[in-house]
Amino acid sequence: MPNVTVRGPEAPRTIESLDPVFTVKNLSVFYGDYEAVRGVDMLIGNREITAMIGPSGCGKSTVLRCFNRMNDLIPGARPAGTIQYHGEDLYGDHVDPIEVRRRIGMVFQKPNPFPKSIYDNIAYGPKVNGVKGKMDDIVEEALTKAALWDEVKGKLKQNALSLSGGQQQRLCIARAIAVKPEVILMDEPCSALDPIATTKIEDLMQELAHDYTIVIVTHNMQQAARVSHRTAFFTAEVDDAGVRHGRLVEFDETSRIFTNPSDKRTEDYITGRFG
Range of 55's domain? Predict the structure, then answer.
């Protein structure tokens, strides 16, 4: 059976009592005529960490970007099926994508601070979005929540690019927090970091899950096992016409995915037999 150590957060709620933030039904994602991901059904629980794992090219990041409509920015990309956000169609005609991205923040694989001061990196979003409150307090609160305040409080006017990679990634998390989102999406946020910085980000994720819903894409199965409440395993399948599509194989509580998966493809991936 899988030999990945599961040291996750407290047990997740049952599916029946989940109070989902996102309800995904029969989601497919197209780039032009190409169906990159096919037939995804899943629920994202409020103030839980959901991990998406699977081999490269299986659609994890494509699905993640659907949750804050980042795929809208890619020519030819379009979803089919439905994604509901608190029961409302996230892609409804009345929905403002800019407001979606304020409520649903994004942290990317490579830290991408603005070439500005640490302070201005955090203050930029609240200023643009008209967040109410004293800016100094907003900046301090965001950096504190991102476990960075004590390290940078004496150098807020320094260029953010002078920070280490791990500090830059926590700065990007603080920047996302500063605009008061409900959800934080993370696309392989630790892949460019060393083990010590990775541990700090993982600890931070578990702390943030008390206040935010978090969805993370990761190639690191140990990371998924350590931090998430639920895990979605994706794979890529080739259809009869020889076309490759991403598919969701299994979605369940993380402890069950890593110790007693219901699909042999999941077990084979976790144990290293393929992928």
Answer: 15-111+182-270
CA distance 153 to 176: 18
Map the chain to HEC letters: CCCCCCCCCCCCCCHHHCCEEEEEEEEEEEECCEEEEEEEEEEEECCCEEEEECCCCCCHHHHHHHCCCHHHHCCCEEEEEEEEECCEECCCCCCCHHHHHHHEEEECCCCCCCCCEHHHHHHHHHHHHCCCCCHHHHHHHHHHHCCCHHHHCCCCCCEHHHCCHHHHHHHHHHHHHCCCCCEEEEECCCCCCCHHHHHHHHHHHHHHCCCCEEEEECCCHHHHHHHCCEEEEEEEEECCCCCEEEEEEEEEEHHHHHHCCCCHHHHHHHCCCCC
- Give the amino acid at 97: P
In a domain, 67, yes or no: yes
State residue 176 phi and psi, 5-degree precision: -70, -40
**Does the predicted model carry a pTM greater than 0.70?**
yes
Q: What is the CA radius of gyration of the chain?
A: 19
Q: Which of 35, 131, 17 is nearest to 80 (CA)?
A: 35
Instruction: Classify residue 160: in a domain, yes or no.
Output: no
- CATH code, domain carrying 64: 3.40.50.300
Q: Are 237 and 218 in contact (CB under 8 A)?
A: no
Domain tally for the chain? 1
- Cα separation, 39 vs 129, whole angstroms: 35
Q: Is residue 172 part of a domain?
A: no
Residue 127 lies in a domain: no
pLDDT in tens, 22-80: 999 999 999 999 999 999 999 999 999 999 999 998 999 999 999 999 999 999 999 99
